[in-house]
Design a protein that fits this description.
Helix content is 39%, strand content 14%. It is of the alpha+beta class. A six-stranded antiparallel sheet has the order 6-5-4-3-7-8.
């Protein structure tokens, strides 16, 4: 072993890399082991060996290969106690050749060896204090392919989420209506002990006064997993009879009891709707209610775990605070005024606290802010606030009327003020959310911000106050985050830079073209306004003032350097001008000789570049009615042309009918080759039309007699000469092309010079 160690250190000096040193050292060690095989076999006659020793050496070689860039020297330890190699064919050279083949097929890399200096100073020393451990070789575990949801799948998921929310709201209103059943309330009052009734006779009700009542109710009614009734009214009556029901039924009974005692009470439920993300409900931590494939109401009530805070009551206590407040009462778990415990309990039961809705009087109100202290965790899992507010707006009014109609209201607070005070309380909770301890939470937080998460178009102004620290990073209010734009971009919003303002930030122009990607709204064309040095000067809103443009004078529209007006909004119009975006407005302005300027309204992006978009013109205010007047004149002219064209076509139609009848009368008798049946049909048709035709001909002849401009001609002469009318109604007076027609139906267009 000493000889192997000295050779190992010598090779380390020569090569100087961990890979070469390890490979040569192990190869020479195998040679020494092969030479001592004979004596080893004599000592170990009674111990048949296998490939265990060789497998260990193979494992070490694979370990060195997997971590060849590590800065450690391979340990050579206690080979004296290791058993000699033995193979199936009894030859140690076979094991050596296989190991050398494995080494040759391996991919070795050069790495630095900082321990060479210490080993060179001590030639006979081998470091035995280093232990190298390896897991399975990299690449053995296959990664699951990450599949991104398409836009259509996201849209479907949102529609399902909205539909589920509507179903849950309908379910809550159904339960709230069942809690107002007078028979249920009377039955609950009959069970209530008399001593508890005396405790609730006080006018100024407090949360402590509700505790004995909640404890009695919790000990009287128990929770079971499921219900066998299909109707909730029947299930509630069954639970009242057996003193046992689901958590939903027990919570509904507590609400009915509080209302029977003339207490202003709401039924509160967590709406555990389907996720906004596609296929998110297929994960393992999905609530049990949606996992079960049973047919009751499992998809509408969420988790069925006993003790999960899914349903509770809110009782208005007049004695709390100076104005009273809504108190959380969970009769299922015997908790009073424990609103701060709901979020943690829901998380322990793997229930997301996304929507907490209170029901009363067939109405509903979102009270999630009261129970959720970490709003940033659920904000991305909620539906669009505009849609959600529009759904709850009529229901909120119904709920407000129902809860204001109780008798136990303090004298110093009017009933109509209760809703306003609660809304202020919820808004205050939204603005006093504690600082998150995770840096990632500040990325899109609605109250707080870290400077490290700001984009290149954002800045902190003013930079303070500092609200706290997260992992050493100062936390600022979100109100301090200001957006930055170029001066051209600020002009779109009707603002211009103040005099002698320096850029708040200077960026380098991006040379990368994102193919197929539409730029963001905040940076759509910032690169188009880069300076001569390839930089972009950005300014904040505090550096701007209202836009001041030169007014229009004497009917002349003020234009920019490009001979146009940038109409980003109505604020960008020069004083005394209007924007007309009507069709054919350019032609009308030129025809009336009105001064105008093309209106550029924005940019469109094609092939990674932006192109201006024009819509209409900008003219002085005194010409804003010129378009309407011109359109009225054009409309009248168009109607006159349409009427003349209609008269001409009717005249041509009648003339064609007369000509056809005349030809039938002249040549129908000479056809003798037709069969008798065809001749009969032709005669019948001629008989039906001959009378009408003769009438038309006679009427037309009478008109010709009264018209001195028309020369009467025989209708059925073979040598007919066309005579054209002098006053043709189909002629166009303004154009040089005229249409001449004869009485026989012949017409021709001529151009007059």
């Amino acid at each position: 072993e000493d000889e192997v160690s000295r050779e190992f250190v010598h090779d380390t000096k020569a090569n100087g890399t961990l890979a070469n040193t390890s490979q040569d050292g192990v190869s020479k060690f195998l040679k020494k082991v092969g030479s001592r095989r004979s004596c080893g076999l004599k000592k170990q006659d009674n111990h048949p060996l296998s490939w265990d020793a060789a497998d260990k050496l193979k494992g070490k070689e694979e370990q060195v290969k997997a971590d060849s860039c590590a800065q450690n020297v391979l340990e050579v330890k206690n080979y004296k106690n290791s058993s000699p190699l033995n193979t199936n064919d009894g030859s140690p050279q076979h094991a050596k050749s296989e190991l050398e083949d494995v080494m040759a097929d391996s991919d070795w890399e050069d790495g630095s060896n900082p321990n060479l200096d210490s080993e060179n100073a001590h030639p006979g020393y081998i470091n035995k204090n280093i232990t190298i451990e390896f897991d399975s070789s990299p690449g053995t575990a296959k990664r699951k392919p990450v599949r991104r949801a398409s836009a259509e799948e996201k849209e479907v998921a949102e529609l399902v989420h909205r539909a589920h929310l509507l179903c849950l709201i309908g379910r809550g209103r159904l339960i709230d209506s069942a809690c107002d059943d007078p028979l249920i309330q009377a039955s609950l009052l009959s069970l209530l002990p008399a001593n508890l009734l005396k405790l609730l006779e006080a006018t100024n009700l407090t949360a402590d006064a509700l505790t004995p009542l909640v404890n009695w109710f919790h000990s009287t009614f128990h929770v079971r997993i499921s219900s066998s009734e299909s109707s909730f009214q029947l299930a509630l009556a069954r639970a009242l009879e057996t003193h046992e029901g689901t958590s939903e039924e027990v919570a509904a009974l507590s609400v009915a009891l509080f209302r029977a005692l003339n207490l202003s009470t709401r039924f509160v439920s967590i709406l555990d709707a389907a996720s906004l993300k596609p296929d998110a409900d297929k994960c393992d931590d999905m609530p049990q209610g949606r996992k079960s494939g049973r047919g009751e109401i499992s998809t509408a009530v969420g988790s069925r775990k006993t003790g999960a805070p899914l349903y509770w009551a809110e009782v208005y206590c007049c004695g709390e605070n100076s104005t009273g407040k809504w108190v959380h009462v969970d009769a299922v778990n015997a908790i009073v005024d424990g609103e701060h415990k709901v979020e943690a309990a829901a998380a322990a039961c793997k229930t997301k606290l996304r929507y907490v809705v209170a029901f009363a009087g067939q109405g509903a109100k979102d009270v999630t802010r009261r129970y959720c202290a970490t709003w940033y965790k659920i904000a991305s899992h909620r539906v669009n606030s505009t849609w959600w507010d529009s759904v709850l707006r009529p229901l909120k009014e119904l709920e407000s009327r129902a809860t204001e109609g109780t008798s136990r209201t303090p004298n110093n607070v009017k009933r109509e003020e209760r809703t306003y005070l609660e809304d202020m309380e919820l808004e205050t909770k939204a603005l006093t959310e504690p600082l998150p301890t995770n840096q990632q939470a500040y990325k899109n937080h609605h109250l707080y911000a870290l400077e490290r998460w700001l984009t290149k178009y954002q800045i902190l102004h003013p930079k303070g106050p500092i609200l706290g620290f997260c992992s050493g990073h100062p936390v600022y209010p979100r109100a301090c985050v200001q957006m930055l734009h170029t001066k051209e971009r600020w002009m779109r919003e009707g603002l211009q830079l103040k005099v002698n303002e320096l850029p708040a930030k200077v960026l380098k122009r991006s040379t990368k073209v994102n193919k197929g990607k539409v730029p963001e709204a905040d940076e759509d064309d910032e690169n188009d306004f880069a300076g001569s040095g390839g930089t972009i000067d950005l300014y904040g809103k505090w550096q701007t003032e209202p836009l001041c443009l030169p007014p229009a004078v004497n009917g002349i529209v003020p234009k920019n350097d490009r001979g146009q007006v940038d109409v980003w909004s109505e604020k960008c119009l020069p004083p005394g001008t209007v924007h007309l975006g009507f069709p054919r407005i350019f032609t009308i302005a030129k025809k009336l000789e009105i001064d105008y300027a093309p209106a550029m309204v924005g940019f469109e992006f094609r092939n990674g570049r932006s192109f201006p978009v024009y819509n209409g013109i900008v003219v002085c205010s005194e010409f804003k009615n010129a378009y309407a007047e011109e359109e009225m004149r054009r409309g009248a002219e168009e109607r006159r042309k349409n009427e003349a064209q209609a008269i001409s076509r009717w005249y041509q139609l009648l003339s064609s009918i007369i000509t056809r009848q005349r030809l039938n009368n002249r040549y129908a008798d000479g056809i003798s080759s037709q069969p008798s049946n065809d001749i009969q049909e032709t005669n019948d048709a001629s008989h039906h039309t001959s009378e009408d035709t003769q009438k038309l001909v006679s009427d037309q002849a009478n008109e010709d007699v009264g018209n001195p401009d028309v020369v009467p001609q025989p209708l059925f002469e073979e040598d007919h000469e066309h005579v054209f009318l002098t006053n043709d109604p189909g002629s166009d007076v303004e154009s040089s092309i005229r249409t001449k027609r004869c009485r026989c139906g012949f017409s021709i267009e001529v151009e007059e010079l």
